[in-house]
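Work package 3, deliverable 3.1, input record:
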Amino acid sequence: MTTTQLPSPRRRSTASAPVRPPLNPHRRRPRYLREQISGWGMIAPAALLLLAFVFLPAILGFGLAFTNARLISPRPVEFVGVDNFARLFTDPTFWRALLNVSYFAVVVVPVQSALALAMALLINKKFRGVNFFRTVYFLPVVTSMVVVSLLWMFMYRKDGLINELLSNASFGLIHGPDWLNDPATAMPAIIALSIWQAAGFHMIIWLAGLQSISGELYEAAQLDGASRWHQFRYVTWPGLKHTRTLILVTITIQALGLFDQVSVMTQGGPLDSTTTIIYEAVRSGFKQQETSYASAISLVFFVLVLLISAVQRYLTREKD
Amino acid sequence: MNKRFTRILATSVAAAALLGTMGACSKGSSSASSESSKEITMWTHNAGNPAELKAIQDIVDSYNKSSSAKAQIKVQAFPQESYNDSVVSAAASGNLPCIVDIDGPNVPNWAWAKYLTPLNLSTDLSKNLPSTVAKWEDQTYAVGYYDVALAMMARASDLKAAGVRVATIEQPWTKDEFQDALTKLKALGKWDYPLDMGTAGTGEWLPYGYSPFLQSFGGDLINRDGFQSADGALNGDKAIEWAKWFHGLADQGFMATKSGKDSTQDFLNNKSAVLYTGSWAADKAKAAFGDDLVVMPTVDLGTGPKIGGASWQWGVTSGCKNADAAMDYLSFSLKPENLAAVATATGTIPATDDAAALIPAYAKGGANRVFMDFSRNYAVMRPETPAYPFIATEYGKAVQDILAGADPKTALDKAVKAIDANIKSNGGYKS
């Protein structure tokens, strides 16, 4: 299971095969052991930190989900079984959050990956100033999501930049809505901003994938008279197989974990139209002090992400 | 196998990282930090407010220099946004300082959690503004140097142009008069929305700013008799009336469902005619409009005008090893000149008449004296129950939903259901 290989019995039997006995069987073991030790030693710092700050809290969180633990309380923590889950599954806000996140993911995953791929194809050429465009496309990614959300919040106001542009472009015919304050437009507004902010990151991953495709393949395709579309369809697209899987999984997880934008811009409103699972977890855990309920939400979220990733892995597996 | 495991591992790590922050165990016990008995620590929320911090530091310095000082006080200031989190995590790890400041409505919650110990001061608190003394179960747990008061501000010239009378303490606007005033002001056509109630506000502003209207209608956040259920108080006929009225203000175009980022600034820039805000905005408005500014009581919607009571207050933690010195310091700090200095620095209402007499604006006949009267006459404490922080979030959400057009009954029923379930799951928040 680990990357360091343990000596397998089969290997040892071939090594001690009678045809070619090892020159010095005693010299091999200590060196192997030393490698083992240094290997574990190198993993140790990261593993310890992960254990202490990720796995232990996560396991604790799973445990807390079955109790009535609270952030502030003089009462002893009691085991309450699946009460928290029973409450969660009958809470309409949770289902609304699930629906919102699905809506977000269903739009963001294809649109953002396609946009990122298009941008990657555009900048995967050699021309003057290509680095300028690469930087420009990547700029939103290095800006904090909180800052981006604050800026877009101003742009989305009723008298904000976007509505002014709409109004000017349509010669005053279109009066845009109060984007973030209308249940119908709040989520699409957040989707647009999210795609704008994160597409650059996936563009870089696509770009890495594109550059790993050998130029000879394109040369060969050109010699065969393949059109640009055919080159893309039969050389680029198959060459991006692994990148595709990676992007699919990372965008999905990122989309399911939607939180920052909502927390800054709408606090889940109006009328729950933008609330998300993580937002509900944070709200219950910190604002409402219900640690156990928040843990239950997180556990459900964890299982959900695991399931979706497993399904994606299964669908994109190597078929042989 | 290896690869698959790595993927699953990576996925788990990503998900677990999100959980990590929430998993932290929490137990509300508290004990003193590593401070010696000759030096005690005091935490305050006002790192982002240099004027207030300096006023507090001055009081501490004069106490530390006085010959009767029982211990040296050390001030540690936090930004307000992270202050509560800091206290909660310090309590969880048993590192609370001796003296903390607390937002008034949270006092019962912290007292119930045994963060705080009842105060035992040598100062007589009976003359303080009632809203500056935080009590829970007949014990005083915290005391504030000041309070703030909500009011309606407008320009006299605008009211005159619209033919609207200036509301006074003797005769506040009634519901019908308020409706009439807004209709007339809107008819002037000078503003998109004549009224600005700060509807873009979030967090504690929602219950602080809007539950007084609910109370003026005759509803409340919870049945104050025993604090066991919100049923009937928050979703009764009076509450529904309040919700319809409040949504109606937006529906009739009197106020925006989401006001601008800075309501005071919008009022100063003549983007609104009537501003509903706290006494903290008074000095700015006075400087801008001078005598044209009128400060009026809020609307009487049935049971008289109401405003929220209680601001930041001071308490002593239960784990403090030198509680005697902490109490001594607090008693010292409540001297009128200290209260006056803090109130001046923060532009707030001093807690006692003696302190008010030292500040020209709050002395009898002073420009801001009216806020003190509002506070004395109208202040309603937010429910003194450990359930308050939860109630506040549920009420805040209901307010936002109602503004956005949710059915009042449904929104309020939902809040009541959540509040009652929360109280029940906490054994009624009994001490």
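Residues 11-34 of chain B have pLDDT under 50 and may be disordered.
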